[in-house]
Amino acid sequence: MVERAARVGDVKRRVLLSGIRLGALACVVLSAPAVRAEGLSEALAKAYQTNPQLNAERARQRATDENVPQALAAYRPQIIAGLSAGLQAVRDQLPGNVIQTATLKPWQIGVTVTQTLFNGFKTANSVRVAELQVQSGREALRNVGQGVLLDAVTAYTNVLANQTLVEAQRSNVAFLKETQAITQRRLNAGDVTPTDTAQAEARLSRGLSDLNAAEVNLAISQATYAQVIGNPPSQLRSAEAVDRLLPRSREDAVGFAFREHPAVMAAGYDVDVASTSIRVAESSLLPQVSVQGSVSRSRDSDSTLGTFGTDQASVIGQVTQPIYDGGTASSQTRQAKEVAAQSRLVLDQVRNQAKTAAVSAWVANEGAKIAVSASESEVKAATVALAGVQKEAAGGQRTTVDVLNSQQDLILAKARLIGAQRDRVIASYTLLSAIGRLDVKTLVLNTPDYLPEVHYHQVRDAWQGLRTPSGQ
């Protein structure tokens, strides 16, 4: 009896220590060490500056800016200089069958200046199209920026959640190993049957498998983090939802999405681009007026000519009116009108998509709040249940499988809580993105904001130069 009481006391002591460790783990869900830790805002700032997808989109926008000076070039004169020189062999047959040969060295130099005065308003409309393309491109850039920041949030919270889940699974494996060892000692003492030992060993094997799966998911999330953020994750601080920045109602969310989402605004600019392109196509049917001035000098060394050189200067005005071009301009005009109709339909489609995304994000965010609250209650209840089952097992009122089942319920509840807390953060940022406000200014990130208009103003009125500006 004394030996049996000692074994029971040993079981109680081990069960109590295990319960204390599990209770401590439940208090650190989705938390990270504070030593040299990296916060979510710091990770977002790094992604905003270094993400290759975002930087590639910025380069595309800078290339789009160049459409404006190209269109403005039609307002400016076109100057062409020409120079020709060479050798010319001449063989003249004179009366009396006299042959005269000579080697000439003619040359000519000249400059021609052409200025378009009127081209059916093509230049003005082309400049307008280019400016609208720049506006559309900026909204597309902003949309890509939102996607990159949301990817960064997802990568950050996935690493954080998987790190916590790995720790939970390791604690679970430690508990199962201890339970298996206790069960083996009790089997040796004749207190339990081999079935209890087999059940403990089976649960330990399952726990090791779950730990391996959690470690694999952590490695994958770490690789994704390095791809999106630009450096491997170190120690991460807990991430919080951005409820303070979110709309107060679903109707507000839909309204913000309609007015401010970059995809909607880009589609609106695309409608303006297509509508203005109709007038560009129609300009081919209108008169063209230009003036051309030229000066030239030529010299010839042929002694048989009456003159040895010529200097010329001229100013010529030209007016042309297309009569029939085979139907090209008419076809291009009809085509532009169809493209404009298509762009309006695309705008309606994008608005509907923005509305659906805003509603979905709002519902998901509200659901995530409920899921976190329910999971927290589940973890608390499962922790209390496990402690009670352990005490009853120590008193002989519960079996080993009861303890194992209770432990399995607790670890599953913790996994659901970890996932719910991760989804809660992602859902809040997704809603912020759905209303078009996931950007550096709104989040107050400690990083300079990329300003696409800086490069635009650097190149807009540039008359020449092959070097790209040193600005953004």
Task: Describe the fold and architecture.
- The chain is of the alpha+beta class and 472 residues long.
- It has two domains: 372 residues, Outer membrane efflux proteins (OEP) (Up-down Bundle); 77 residues, Outer membrane efflux proteins (OEP).
- Helix content is 65%, strand content 13%.
- It contains twelve helices and eight strands.
- The chain has a four-stranded antiparallel sheet, with no helix packed on it. A two-stranded parallel sheet has the order 1-6.
- Strand 3 and strand 4 form a beta hairpin.
- Helix 2 packs across helix 5.
- The radius of gyration is 39 Å and the shape is elongated.
- The N terminus is likely disordered.
What's this model, at a glance?
This protein has 472 residues and is of the alpha+beta class. Helices cover 65% and strands 13% of the residues. It has a four-stranded antiparallel sheet with strand order 2-5-7-8, with no helix packed on it.
